[in-house]
Specification:
The structure is a homodimer.
Chain A: E1 13-14, H1 37-46, E2 50-53, E3 58-60, E4 68-74, E5 76-82, E6 88-95, E7 99-100, E8 113-116, E9 120-126, H2 127-136, H3 138-164, H4 167-184, E10 191-193, H5 198-205, H6 209-221, E11 225-228, E12 231-234, H7 237-242
Antiparallel strand pairs in A: 1-2, 2-9, 3-8, 4-7, 4-9, 5-6, 5-8, 10-12, 11-12
Helix pairs in contact in A: 2-3, 5-6
The first copy, chain A, binds a DNA duplex through helix 6.
Chain lengths: 252, 252
DNA sequence: AAGTTGCATTGACACAGATCAAAGGGGTAC
DNA sequence: GTACCCCTTTGATCTGTGTCAATGCAACTT
């Protein structure tokens, strides 16, 4: 289904590209959070350099041997799982400062695909070496655990969304989540470009692309947002939030 | 909605109950997996004892301060998230040898509830001390990471289920998953008691209890299983498996 | 600049699962 | 041992979302 099959060129590591964590403006969002200058230097020294990816390129594929986790330095990714029987589910969208690849730790093999949705750049963090260092730096160890736990909690949120919400509620939650993450990164909370297609949004939200499209249109008709293809402007955040909390209180 | 609100008695630790990991027949499924005798002894010494819970009792609640993770020693648990707006989603069912509570690591506060579905027993594993020990024992550290990663991968599986499967497919996947886990623990793969209600199954699978009940009945009519309240006998595992792989191949 | 291609929108209709309702069964507590 | 209550089953109907199909829009290629 994806048109990118041919783009399976293994992205090469770009050594000159390396930028120390201590210099990185994402350090407060990313793995080095809470480290001293000195410890950050130690983390720097194990990071295997950066890797640039063009839109559509895979960072890794299901079945690849797991060696590293990745910190998104710039750009936008999606992760998806696909099963033998042809099911395909987007499990997440990742942006700058977020960690990708932790699915591979459990079996030493990646269980999902990670694809760049725009030209992107990641820092490569060899996992075995990270474990060594984290056994020496208490705060690094603890933060790594927090990052993994946060992923578990995030997944619970998605399960809640998929299990209990209706189409418009899901889309509202999705937009508010993006808005919130853009805010954290210093971008506009109300105006942004979607990097993914309607189909990818639909897959993530457990909906068909037509349903996503219709929900966008309805939100626009009601003055909640303005949509022009992938360009979104949120016009009424408070009212969007009320969509998530059914007025009747739905106290089961 | 739950009738168990009054049973909020804090379960006390039962010191005499402590049974060393090395004596535990779950050690190959649980945290001590892969440890030497000696290291298992060190793990034993930090485990804070066992805790018994009656059916309906909470192991922890959303909002509780996070201090420990728990290994299920006997019994059966569910975890669920509930939001301010009254949504309620069962995020998992846990049985012997499985680890509960990792949702709390990220914010130091639990984000979901864990409730015993039958009289149960857990080992209490203080997390800070576990971190200390795991920085000293490489294989323990790595196994902890694997356990957390496995939880992430499991959640992806649930997202796939909720996002792409129809009611009967979800229930078939659920039964096969239980069957597989019972097998691992030496119980019958084909005959078991459900510890949870139709409503809890429905919440986990993103369905209403009536839909779950109807799907059970249809499976029974078709000779796939036999159902009598909570007692399940799987009659035809292969055919149940084919329900998961749509014959047309559904290659989107 | 025109043609191609993929993505998005919109409409009509179908259907799976939700909702509402009622009755039966089994386990639990007293 | 008995009574109550919760859980489960089953039916009838409703509805949100999927499906199928056609058109429109925009970006990229040559």
């Amino acid at each position: 289904m994806h048109a990118n099959v041919k783009q399976n060129v293994v992205p090469l590591i770009t050594p000159g590209l390396k930028l120390a964590c201590s210099q990185c403006n994402l350090r407060e969002l990313c793995l080095p959070f809470g480290l001293s200058e000195h410890d950050m230097g130690r983390l720097d020294s194990l990071i295997g350099g950066a890797r640039k990816l063009k839109r559509g390129q895979h960072l890794y594929r299901a079945g690849d041997v797991f060696e590293s986790i990745f910190a998104v330095k710039a750009g936008f990714f999606k992760t998806d799982v696909l099963t033998e029987d042809g099911r395909d589910q987007v499990t997440g969208f990742q942006m700058a400062g977020e960690i990708v690849g932790m699915d591979g730790i459990s079996t030493e093999v990646h269980t999902c695909n990670a694809v760049a949705l725009e030209d992107s750049e990641v820092c490569l963090i060899p996992f075995t070496e990270l474990e060594v260092l984290s056994s020496e730096i208490r705060s690094l160890q603890h933060h790594l655990h927090k990052v993994m736990s946060r992923e578990i909690v995030r997944d619970h949120g998605v399960m809640m969304l998929l299990g209990t919400m209706r189409a418009e509620e899901r889309l509202a939650a999705f937009l508010l989540n993006l808005s919130q993450r853009f805010t954290t990164r210093g971008y506009s909370p109300t105006e942004f470009h979607l990097r993914m297609t309607r189909e990818e949004i639909g897959s993530y939200l457990g909906l068909k692309l037509e349903t996503v499209s219709r929900a966008f249109s309805r939100f626009q008709d009601e003055g909640l947002i303005s949509v022009q293809q992938k360009h979104i402007r949120i016009l009424d955040i408070p009212r969007l939030k009320t969509l998530l909390a059914p007025p009747d209180g739905r106290i089961r």
